[in-house]
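This section describes the prediction task in plain terms. A model, or a person checking by hand, is given the sequence of a single protein chain and must write out its three-dimensional structure as a string of tokens. No templates, partner chains or ligands are provided. The sample shown here is typical of the held-out split.
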Amino acid sequence: MSGPIEAATMCFACGVENPIGLQIKFTVDGDTCTGKFTPSENHVGWNDTVHGGIIYSALDDVTANVLYKQGRKAHTAKCEIRYRQALSVGETITLKGWIEKEKGRLIILKGEARRLSDGELVADCQASFMDSAGN
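The expected answer:
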């Protein structure tokens, strides 16, 4: 594991000091990270539908936080997302990210966003991260 890494208090997705951010609180248990997010009218793309970029940001961050919360410094190299259905303003999603495999500096993670009310999959992703410390 790497040494201490800088705080991300202004992160758009999880930064507690970012007044326009999503402010998602993540927790990690082993190689799995979870969180919840309820989009507001500030996150709209069309009519009452949440912008896909907001959903992407939440998924990118749940995968990133698997590593960050373990004290590992890494950055997104690639992230492929699949939108399964629309998400409306006010519908809470549960976020989950986990490590699929590691090879050298490359870490493959998966993430999903599910509607809290019915467990339906809203979007999922596969992300490749590069470990900055070479672990």
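For orientation: The chain has a mean pLDDT of 92.
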